[in-house]
TrEMBL record:
PROSITE patterns associated with the record: VOC (PS51819)
Protein name: VOC family protein
Pfam families: Glyoxalase, Glyoxalase_6
CDD domains the UniProt entry points to: SgaA_N_like
Domain of life of the organism encoding this protein: Bacteria
InterPro entries in the cross-refs: Anthracycline_SecMetBiosynth (IPR052164), Glyas_Bleomycin-R_OHBP_Dase (IPR029068), Glyas_Fos-R_dOase_dom (IPR004360), Glyoxalase_6 (IPR041581), VOC_core (IPR037523)
PANTHER family: CONSERVED PROTEIN, GLYOXALASE-RELATED
Domain VOC: 11-125, 139-254
């Protein structure tokens, strides 16, 4: 388990979801993950924080009725200066769509996209440092960028956050892991034209569960969809699912929760051979 502390810039520190039906979405995730909810800062409208055993693990907000945006989980990357990071993102070919703006006393945020169009957040912590637990069932345990190719995207993110990059050397598999302070924090997976046309390049959130098969069945019973049925990988058992509003995420029962990224890299190397 990891507790909420100030993260090294570039570390995924929070995941958040904006939906049209806030109450119904909270009911879905409460039933799926056992989350409870408390009001959070509301610079963009109604917003709640999801808690698991009293620890904050994610956020869910409500879109204005006239905003018809793609419904998707957003990965937030930590920064010490949201304004400076936003300017760097612009200079490196990315886009800043929202902010930077203050989220009450919690911190300062911006919503951005990389040159391939993948949306991500930037979070400068003040009172709120982000996800307070990662590892137990019901918590986000990994974030992966699914994009067209990793070479240029790796350079983009490294220019902003000074990541160390560990690529999988293969002519058939395009994958790299982002490291900070000597440890893996996220990954980039280039899938070319296999990217879903309706989503394009996007960040994927992996949520830990105790039983992937049971959780996938529960997703369907609660009104979501199973896009890719449960399957085994060296990193654990996985299923790709959506909530009732269409937000895509991955259920995972990690084989070794403490070495998730190493397992992912191993699986990528095996698939490329």
């Amino acid at each position: 388990m990891t507790e909420a502390t100030r993260r090294t810039p570039g570390t995924p520190c929070w995941v958040s979801l904006m939906v049209h039906g806030l109450d119904a979405t909270c009911e879905f995730y409460a039933a799926l993950f056992g989350w409870e909810f408390l009001p959070g800062p509301q610079p963009l409208g109604p917003y709640v924080r999801a808690l698991l055993d009293g620890r904050e693990v994610a956020g869910i907000g409500q879109l204005p009725p006239d905003r018809h945006l793609p419904i998707a989980w957003t990965t937030y990357l930590a920064t010490d200066d949201a304004d400076e990071t936003a300017e760097t993102i612009r200079c490196c070919g990315g886009t800043v769509a929202v902010g930077p703006l203050d989220a009450g006393e919690a911190g300062r945020m911006a919503i951005c996209s990389d040159p391939a169009g993948a949306v991500f957040g930037v979070w400068q912590a003040d009172a709120h440092h982000g996800t307070a637990a990662a590892g137990p069932a019901g918590t986000p345990v990994w974030n992966e960028l699914l994009t067209y190719e990793t070479a240029s995207m790796g350079k983009f993110y490294r220019s902003i956050f000074d990541y160390e990059i560990e690529p999988v050397v293969s002519a058939d598999f395009d994958y790299l892991t982002l490291h900070l302070d000597g440890r893996p924090v996220a990954s980039l997976h280039g899938v070319g034209t296999a990217l879903p046309r309706d989503r394009g390049a996007h960040w994927m959130t992996y949520f830990e569960v105790d039983d992937v098969d049971a959780s996938a069945r529960l997703v369907s019973e609660l009104g979501g969809q199973v896009l890719r049925p449960p399957r085994e990988g060296t990193a654990g058992r996985l299923a790709l699912v959506t909530d009732p509003e269409g937000a895509v995420f991955t259920l995972v029962r990690s084989a070794e929760r403490s070495s998730w990224a190493a397992e992912r890299s191993s699986r990528a190397a095996e698939r490329s051979s």
